[in-house]
Protein: tRNA pseudouridine synthase Pus10
Organism: Pachyramphus minor
Amino acid sequence: MSSLTEKDRPVVQLLLNAGTCPRCILRFCCVGSQTLYRHPFKDLMQDLQDFLRKTQEKEDTVCSDVVDPPCKRIRLEHTEEGPEDLNHNGALPQIPSGTDGNAAMESPAGKVCNVCLGILQEFCEADFVKKVCQKVNSADYQFTSFVFSVSLPPQLSVRERAAWLGVKQEMRNLGLSLARDDIVQLKEAYKWIIHPQLAEELGVPADGKSLFEVSVVFAHPETDEECRFLATACPDCFKPAKNKQSVFTRMAVMKALEKIKEEDFLKHFPCPPSSPKNLCEALEIQCNNGAVFVAGRYNKYSRNLPQTPWIIDGERKLESSVEELISEHLMAEFKADSFNFSSSGREDVDVRTLGNGRPFAIELVNPRRIHFTAEEMKRLQQAINNSSDKIQVRDLQLVTRSAIGRMKEGEEEKTKTYSALIWTDRAIQREDIALLDDIKELKLDQKTPLRVLHRRPLAVRCRVIHTMSSEYIDEHHFRLHLKTQAGTYIKEFVHGDFGRTKPNIGSLLNRTADILELDVESVDVDWPPTLDN
């Protein structure tokens, strides 16, 4: 095994004797060759045994050339730690561990590894890879690449620490050292082995930036038993948490391992670790696609339709909403688990949205289908529009997550245009409302309206009415067209909200005014891009 050198022999011999699998031994020998980990398990075991045998034979040959060579064990006992422990040819003496090199060569391959608990044994084989791929294929996802993630039992960190401490002690006795950061991480080695197999079986490449994730959750029945000593040594690291079956979570165990002193660890856990009673089990094999985002503009023609479901104290007030009328079609076509709806502002249940409509975006969570042509999106838009006369959508398109930020950025900066039907208690003539047409950049102080005070914090918001244009109807009615700063409460600007909005139409006309109808005529956010529908 060309990747191993003479200095690795003590590590190989110690860990083989302890019941460590060949791939974990390579990790602790800091072997970074990915292809080597992919060799068949039996071949790796044979290679390690051949490596020990050859180095032993080489040392025996060297020793036979020395006149009356001193006994290695005696020489080690009478020399100080350090480089002087090397013999005259630079070879390491046989490790004085009480173990037998021949015993290491005969180490059984069928035992569960005392470090990885079988992760780099059973779960690297073709049968397990096929099981994972069957799960992926049966889930019926669209994907062109994948990223593989793995969740390991918490006590693997404990066993890894124990193996490192055992190896470190052995190396220290020989004047050598092994930094913990130099050891190849278990997850990294596992992915080196599993990625090519999954890629071949699934027919797509592994890509760390892929939005399609295949994850395996491993569990082990002895987790609590093996981690319990940490709770005694570091009780403040383990606190009961909601939705957690055990206090021995990965993060809690890692925190305790950082805190516990080395001598305390050595007292409570064998180093290297002893062989486990059981193999790990693959508790869950899961698939998840990254969210897909769909944007467009909607018109709302009903005065009895909320933007989002209207539910008070668990009771639904109206049967549908803009959100639901749009999303039910998207959910069905994209085969998503759930969705999140957002828009550039919102209108009240009794307010229509006309003109070019209001920009909206829907995040589709964990969609099975992700690829749609422009023509397919047009058909989907038409299906939404044919399903109800209460709403219509336009410019329906796939967008990126970052693009949605443009919709939100424009909410406070852009303007909105409204049309309000207004009633006055005292009769008006055309000249009475003409003064409104001449008012420009009218500044308002709007205290949080009473009608939204239950869901909005109490504050005074400064807003601007840019322009107004009046349209006389009769002695008690007129229509007012307004261009305002986004976020202006139009209803309150008309009736004053008991003096909470100043000035207001009532105070400007010196009479009581109220609003009968309100329409949003335009939301001046230049997003999403207009399509040729």
Summary: Residues 114-226+269-288 form one domain.
